[in-house]
């Protein structure tokens, strides 16, 4: 047991106390009075440096290095190649040999840059010097883009106390003359594995085919979507239309004219109204207006004088549609601009029309202003959406780096200066299309790779489960596969390589398909929605099938899976 | 899950402001003051969470900032808050204190945390299970304890854990998940 103390519900220390106890000046004082350690002095490094140089000279003389020879590396590689075929991985156990998922064989020539495009859109980029052999090489691939294919291939999906939900899985092997070949670590093969779900919430793992364990593997999770481009173009188009609408509304707003009293021949200022005699036959347009009075157009000191004085005569005239009155008193003649205004019933009617026009104009303005506000708000929203789309597109390539599981070094005095190196992903050129969703990774050894995330195993059923096969009765399974259709995960119990025993069987929900394997080579299929809870027992009725009947089509049909197409 | 450390995550402008302080402090340590004020409480709580001695926790906290100041010339901005560097120094100082037998490695846990674990483990919350959990925590490796503490007791987001431990956020998730699995395995074995 480690030397640790566990304290439960310890007394909390207040922010106030921490603040009171903190003193930056103390820290500064300590800094000023701290001497440099001896190993930071010039004298030390002078002596040490000299000693290092001497050692660098003497040591190679005493222990000469072996010559590096590429042929010896190749020979080493060949020696490691055993007769173990890639298919003979001990932890990949297909449920039925005849219904195992077949490999697709791609025959290529070593020494030539090759791009393999797989049926689901995944791409394998092989460099000319990726192999340390010459001649024809067969790259064998298997894609597992649904639970059915992974199940039939016998790929283990357990991960600790969980099972993997997959977003895309691939197995890649390389053989020459039936024997496994190795990849030149200086020229790894690159794979762009297509994902059928957004991989950004997932991890990336490789399968140790000997132990059946999945471990983190470095990759780059990429999501670049052509439709994002289309969305952005659409949004821009929408924004352009919106801007045009807003401009049009602004124009309409500006064009709204507020009716004036002048237009309706109504008086504006009663203080400036006066009567004037004129020959009606001389001004028929005034006759049409009925009884009219006149209004001075401007109020001034002069206009005050006009109203406070008695005049010999006031003459009306019109020039260029403008009315004029000449006030005459002896030699004094004052000309002022005037306009006729309605009186009586005609004035009342005109006033009503004026008020109506005014209200209409106000209403139009109000409506247009509201429309402008709405359009401006929509513009702001669409602009924000466009900005997000552009930002999302820019950040679309999520960089996921999983380290090989590295142990931290023992902390030393200066350990905080050391950073755990994260292996970078070497890439020569972009070999996958602009529109791509999946994992891009480098292969330095063949194997099985998976975009997935762990989902916890269900709690074991409280009581044992009795499996009853129709027309046969109760039967003890030797292995149980539980396909949780809701979580999109396959759990295994009692199956070779699984950590869970038959008695650990349980289920999360009633949307799960149960496949039991029996000693006699048959299987039984059931559904958890038909699970019956009896006294101290669960019971599930199964439909019998022969193992050989488990073709990909059959399995896909009872798992409601269609082959994922790209 | 709310963060114990809502101040940890910084906007671009906050990060740049910090960088400004650091650059000034490199030429004159007095300019380190704002950074000290900003992180002092956080670092103290981190240290105290792991120590059985309050007075020593205050001393270690002061040592953290002293070390940071002494080595400030070696600090390189990596686009994450300066606090992540301070946390690494704090971890180093804590380990030194434990090695010198000045303090005992402590795990401070609250009843609410125990209840949460029981929920995760699908176990009843009772005295027996409480003891099992404390024993399991004692059995865990230091790295696993650190992850459990940061995530479940201190409720730090994975991003923050990643930055403090210099690993990616996803790796922090994976490692924390595995630490929890190992805790459960220990718990079940007892």
Rounded to an integer, what's the Rg of chain A over CA atoms? 45 Å
Q: Could you report the average pLDDT of chain B, rounded to the nearest whole number?
A: 84
Question: Helical element count of chain B?
Answer: 9
Distance between the amino and carboxyl termini of chain A: 54 Å
Radius of gyration of chain B from CA coordinates = 18 Å
Distance between the termini of chain B: 29 Å
- The SSE order of chain B reads HHHHEHHHHH
Query: Helicity of chain B, in percent?
Result: 55-70%
Q: What proportion of the residues of chain A form beta strands (DSSP E)?
A: 25-35%
What value does the average pLDDT of chain A take?
A: 80
Tell me how many strands of chain B there are: 1
Helix content of chain A: 25-40%
General description of the model:
Chain A is built from ten helices and 28 strands. Chain A has helices at 15-21, 24-32, 42-62, 70-80, 147-153, 226-255, 284-289, 301-308, 344-394, 552-558; strands spanning 4-8, 104-110, 114-117, 123-126, 135-143, 158-159, 162-176, 179-180, 189-194, 203-208, 213-216, 220-224, 273-274, 292-296, 313-319, 322-329, 332-342, 397-398, 436-443, 447-456, 465-469, 473-474, 479-484, 489-493, 512-517, 522-527, 532-534, 537-546. In chain A, the strands form four sheets. In chain A, strands 2, 5, 6, 7, 8, 10, 11 and 20 form an eight-stranded antiparallel beta sheet that branches. In chain A, strands 21, 22, 23, 24, 25, 26, 27 and 28 form an eight-stranded mixed beta sheet that branches. Chain B has nine helices and one strand. Chain B has 190 residues and is mostly helical. At the A-B interface, strand 1, helix 1 and helix 2 of A face helix 2, helix 3, helix 4, strand 1 and helix 6 of B. Strand 1 of chain A pairs parallel with strand 1 of chain B.
Ordered list of secondary-structure elements with their pairings:
The complex is a heterodimer of chains A (566) and B (190).
Chain A: E1 4-8, H1 15-21, H2 24-32, H3 42-62, H4 70-80, E2 104-110, E3 114-117, E4 123-126, E5 135-143, H5 147-153, E6 158-159, E7 162-176, E8 179-180, E9 189-194, E10 203-208, E11 213-216, E12 220-224, H6 226-255, E13 273-274, H7 284-289, E14 292-296, H8 301-308, E15 313-319, E16 322-329, E17 332-342, H9 344-394, E18 397-398, E19 436-443, E20 447-456, E21 465-469, E22 473-474, E23 479-484, E24 489-493, E25 512-517, E26 522-527, E27 532-534, E28 537-546, H10 552-558
Parallel strand pairs in A: 21-28
Antiparallel strand pairs in A: 2-5, 3-4, 4-9, 5-7, 6-7, 7-8, 7-20, 9-19, 10-11, 10-20, 12-18, 12-19, 13-14, 14-17, 15-16, 16-17, 21-22, 23-24, 23-25, 25-26, 26-28, 27-28
Helix pairs in contact in A: 6-9
Chain B: H1 12-27, H2 33-49, H3 54-70, H4 83-99, E1 105-109, H5 111-121, H6 127-139, H7 142-153, H8 158-165, H9 169-189
